[in-house]
Recover the amino acids of this structure.
């Protein structure tokens, strides 16, 4: 059924820290690796060693430059995957019922056995989170690693999405955003997490944390007092050497 | 948006076919026997041919039957259900006329309504999408419906009605193009809202996720059509509306009628190509494109 649930028991999702992301693309690679070997059809590549290599990815990292009116531009690396929207337009347009949002945790999934590969859900998604696999002819999207987070065969520290587990900078956080006391909700609260394209009315679950403002050269550095010269005039052995060298012919510079 | 040939063929032909079925359904004095057979054969060839063509762009056409299940929520599903009901209803109506010389008035009216509703569902597949501001307007169903009705009137030989509807469709087409050109900028969505960083300054795409394009770029960012868009619009407008109206105003001849129909079909196909080729999907913004 492609009607959306009115309410989900939990609201699992990601919080992505744009301040911390270094743009290394490790999350992209680990996502591709895990999701090629596990849930559903593998993520195919086309011409991987030829001209114009292409492939299906559930997570991609863009890089942007933000130029404020005054001051220096800032580089922001920007990972983007399915935002598991509460009002997911991709689900309601699906003609077969293959796309659905789970009542128990809010994850948006595709039943690949029912997908006819019409592509309309990808048209309906403003975020480019869905890609039609060119080899399998079915729609692929982020599953929030549904086959990891409930998988008791994995060590507990691995029971989180692959991208979150892999991120070397700790820029990706996973949790229940419907629980105001969860770590992810607290992060959103304290850091002012925001939605992408709020005007689309999709109510995305995933939140983004803003990059902190860039330092200016005029800012007073916290380290400035420690950088004061400890002695203007050389003393001790260096003082003697200084005087001795001054006495030698050849003058000073 | 990538203009998939199968979808353009589908919406052009089936629009005409269902338009013709509409006029045959509401006809108070419909053809019977062999003339009826010819009219219905043309209508079914167009509508069914279009529907079959639309399955060519599917990743798994063998599962297409599943698309009939989600009519409660999905316009694409409604289109499939409505098309089948329209074709079945009009099929019985056609058999009555061709073989039994019976005019089942009520059945024809129901079939005509279903045929028109099918065209409406097709248009709503596009008009529902917030992600393509050029399509997200009530003028999209108005354009599809008026073109379908005009084409159907043309095919069924209703000269005065065809002229009137061609003029109406031409007005909708003009408005649709005018509105469409400003639709993306008027929508308020830009790279600033897409990244949520717009309040901090001007956002510019510095590097794409990968050096080569991907499915999203190929499906949603189609820029080839824009170079000659204005020229193609004039050609489409001339073929769809101007030439057929001139042919209809001249004293009737079968050659002129055939020219009017072929010109109209070619024009609609051209404007349908532009419908996709010119449409900007907001995903393009993430790639610093439109």
């Amino acid at each position: 059924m492609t009607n959306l649930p009115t309410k989900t028991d939990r609201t699992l999702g990601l919080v992505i820290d744009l301040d911390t992301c270094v743009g290394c693309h490790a999350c992209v690679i680990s996502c591709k690796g895990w999701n090629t070997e596990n849930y559903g059809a593998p993520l195919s590549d086309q011409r991987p060693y030829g001209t114009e290599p292409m492939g299906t990815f559930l997570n991609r990292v863009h890089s942007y430059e933000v130029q404020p009116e005054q001051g220096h531009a800032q580089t922001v690396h920007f990972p983007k995957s399915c935002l598991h929207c509460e009002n997911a337009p991709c689900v309601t347009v699906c003609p077969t019922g293959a796309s659905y949002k789970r009542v128990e945790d809010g994850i948006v999934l595709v039943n690949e056995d029912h997908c006819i590969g019409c592509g309309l859900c990808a048209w309906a998604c403003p975020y480019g989170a869905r890609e039609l696999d060119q080899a399998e002819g079915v729609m692929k999207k982020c599953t929030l690693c549904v086959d990891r987070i409930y998988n008791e065969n994995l060590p507990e520290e691995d029971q989180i999405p692959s991208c979150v587990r892999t991120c070397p900078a700790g820029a990706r956080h996973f949790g229940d955003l419907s629980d105001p006391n969860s770590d992810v909700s607290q992060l959103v609260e304290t850091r002012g997490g925001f939605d992408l394209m709020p005007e689309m009315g999709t109510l995305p679950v995933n939140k983004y944390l803003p990059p902190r403002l860039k330092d200016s050269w005029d800012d007073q550095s916290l380290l400035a007092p420690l950088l004061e010269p400890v002695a203007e005039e050389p003393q001790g052995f260096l003082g003697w050497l200084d005087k001795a060298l001054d006495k030698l012919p050849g003058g000073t510079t | 948006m990538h203009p998939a040939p199968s979808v353009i063929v589908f919406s052009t032909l089936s629009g005409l076919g269902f338009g013709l079925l509409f006029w045959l359904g509401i006809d108070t004095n419909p053809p019977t026997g062999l003339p009826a057979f010819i009219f219905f054969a043309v209508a079914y060839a167009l509508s069914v041919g279009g529907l079959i063509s639309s399955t060519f762009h599917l990743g798994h056409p063998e599962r297409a039957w599943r698309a009939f299940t989600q009519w409660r929520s999905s316009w694409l599903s409604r289109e499939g259900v409505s098309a089948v009901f329209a074709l079945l209803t009009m099929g019985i109506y056609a058999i009555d006329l061709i073989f039994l010389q019976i005019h089942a008035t009520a059945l024809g009216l129901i079939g005509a309504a279903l045929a028109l509703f099918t065209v409406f569902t097709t248009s709503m597949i596009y008009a529902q999408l917030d992600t393509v501001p050029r399509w997200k307007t009530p003028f999209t169903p108005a354009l599809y419906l008026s073109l379908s009705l005009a084409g159907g009137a043309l095919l069924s030989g209703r000269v005065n009605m065809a002229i009137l509807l061609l003029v109406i469709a031409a007005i909708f087409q003009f408005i649709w193009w005018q509105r469409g050109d400003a639709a993306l900028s008027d929508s308020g969505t830009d790279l600033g809202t897409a990244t949520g960083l717009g309040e901090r300054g001007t956002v510019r795409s510095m590097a794409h996720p990968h050096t080569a394009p991907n499915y999203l770029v190929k499906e949603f960012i189609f820029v080839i059509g824009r170079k000659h868009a204005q020229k193609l619009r004039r050609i489409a407008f001339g073929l769809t509306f101007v030439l057929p109206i001139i042919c209809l105003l001249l004293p009737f001849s079968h050659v002129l009628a055939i020219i009017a129909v072929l010109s109209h079909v070619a024009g609609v196909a051209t404007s349908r190509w532009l419908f996709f080729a010119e449409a900007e999907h907001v995903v393009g913004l993430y790639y610093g494109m439109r």
